[in-house]
Amino acid sequence: MANLRDIRNRIESIKNTQQITRAMKMVAAAKLRKAQDRITQTRPYASKMKEMVARLVRNSGDDNVLLRTPESTDNVLFIVVGSDRGLCGGFNNNLFKVVEKTIKKEYSKYHESGNLSLICIGRQATKYFGKRNYEVIAEYPGFWDNIVFNKATEIMKSVVGDFKAGTYDEVKLAYNEFKSVIAQNRLVESVLPIDPSTLVEDEDISAKEYIYEPDAENILQKLLPLHLNLQLWKAILESNAAEQGARMTAMDNATENAQEMKEDLQLEYNRARQSAITTEISEIISGAQALEEA
Q1: Side by side, which strands form the sheet with 76-81?
Q2: Which residues are catalytic?
Q3: What pLDDT, on the 0 to 100 scale, is given for residue 65?
């Protein structure tokens, strides 16, 4: 049976770990509330933006380069939104596996020929794909230290520039969509070229007609880049909320597991202590009996 001192040390170690996991759960809960507020405020705006773009595309005869499907797809780009920190359960690995599965199923020939590139947001995405023979052309470690819209704009501006220049023929965006504290939707969405049919359903567009000033084509030139910026920004906010929810759940489970381990060790300690006391009593009785017989 284990030494009593060793068991006591293990119990103290688990108590210390439990305090850390409980504190991390509380911090994640506070961050989750702020993240939920941000994504709740962004979703209606993003939805209305998609509706406006869909309406303009329907009423525009302009052949915008961001809407134009290339004759052939030669190069593909994936934007993967991970996290900077771990200790959030399967938040990162589950998304990365979905990305790899998508690449293997639909883009394996591009990966094998070296025509598939990745932009990794967050340290965990960079570490994961950097070790697995993927061409990571840009990485953003420490991205989540300060989440601002300008960062998303800079990334998307670079991607749009490369798309217009013909560097990439297709762009995908992979991220965790916040569903609830205990669940996330792992999504791989098409970003470029913009497919008008995926913006909104026809019945979602009001039958009312609008007069545009200036014309629809000029407005569309301004709105499409904004729509793309907002699409990436929404994915970042969704991922942030999902990460905090996953971390909160993971730390809650860790705290409960630590409590169970502490109870098991306490029981083991009590048994060992009882055994030691029984042995001491037996030795005292034996010694007393030996003295009487002498």
Answers
A1: 135-140, 116-121, 76-81, 170-180, 183-192
A2: 88
A3: 83
Mean pLDDT along residues 206-231: 80
Q: Which two three-digit tokens encode residue 73? A: 């797809």
**In degrees, to the nearest 5, what angle opens at C-alpha 30 toward C-alphas 29 and 34?**
110
For 75-118, the pLDDT digits (tens) are 999 999 999 998 898 899 999 999 999 999 999 999 999 999 99
Structurally, the chain folds into a number of domains equal to 2
Residue 27 lies in a domain: no
Do 203 and 241 share a domain, yes or no?
yes
d(CA 207, CA 215): 19
Q: Is 57:67 a contact under the CB 8 Å cutoff? A: yes
pLDDT at residue 244 in the model:
95
Q: Report yes or no on 294 lying in a domain.
A: no
Judge if pTM exceeds 0.90: no
Torsions phi, psi of 81, nearest 5? Answer: -100, 105
- Check whether residue 188 and residue 280 sit in a common domain: no
Q: Do 51 and 196 belong together in one domain? A: yes
